Amino acid sequence: MNPTKTRCLIIGSGPAGYTAAIYASRANMNPILYEGMQRGGQLTITSMVDNFPGYPEGRMGGDIMEDIRQQALRFGAEIREGEILSVDFSKRPFRCTADDGTQIEAETVIIATGASARWLGLPSEKEYNGSGVSTCATCDGFFYKGKDVAVIGGGDTAAEDATYLAGLCRKVYMVHRRDQLRASQFMQEKVFATNNIEMVWNHIPLEILGEGDKFSKSVTGLRLQNVQTKAEQTLAVDGVFVAIGHHPNTELFEGQLELDEEKYIVTQPGTSKTSVPGVFAAGDVQDRQYKQAITAAAGGCRAAIDAERFLKQC
Fold first, then answer.
1. Is position 140 annotated as part of the catalytic site?
2. Which residues of the chain have pLDDT under 50?
3. Known active-site residue 314
4. What is the pTM of this model?
């Protein structure tokens, strides 16, 4: 089977991937975009987004992503379902393989694979995943309406999850290993102004408690330990939401590109250029600092422009 040839392959969707597709299409690069496992990226599992420009009344994250996707399609981007499973960046054209076996030869590649939620690493976390343990408050919060839940974490993700769940749940415990939040000042103020959020400072989770068998399980509590006194306590909760950040989805590129100690793709300062000429990265897959939808979109714009300029110089 002859490989599909393209001037620009975009791996991943979300604000970075879709924006890159808009700019690459308008530059007559005829991009092919593979959306990956989560069409639209992390923003599709958020609720109301109030800080993305152009939506003065706010907009659901999934709706924003669909708007940008449709804009990319309007300019001629070829958007495909499925994943890229392997890449070979050893020479140009780069050779990539999709999950349906399709071979793609690309003159340039833009990586926009984003990031995934981090887990605590507790055995009980895996045991009750999907049966009382979640990393997506907006996906699963509805099931805990009127119940008590715990949110683990102290950053913006945890603060956003806690305030969202507070609108559904009777009580939200926000458990953090330190004595102050890492979240932005705005989000901290929202947390502290919400009456049914109770902070549990200086504690770490030891075990998620539950009942039932392999056919039907449910969470009944969360066992904690004070990091200072080592004393333990148990919170009676019906659900546990893990919100301790994300890790970049870069497993596919290990050994192909330079990654930093946390596995983010290393890019040249002020550009989207990676360690391999012709391969570019945008969004949360290389952004350790901002991790916002608007900065991811800006990164997608930059990557497409960098790719266009690269092709002109070849």
1. yes
2. none
3. no
4. 0.79
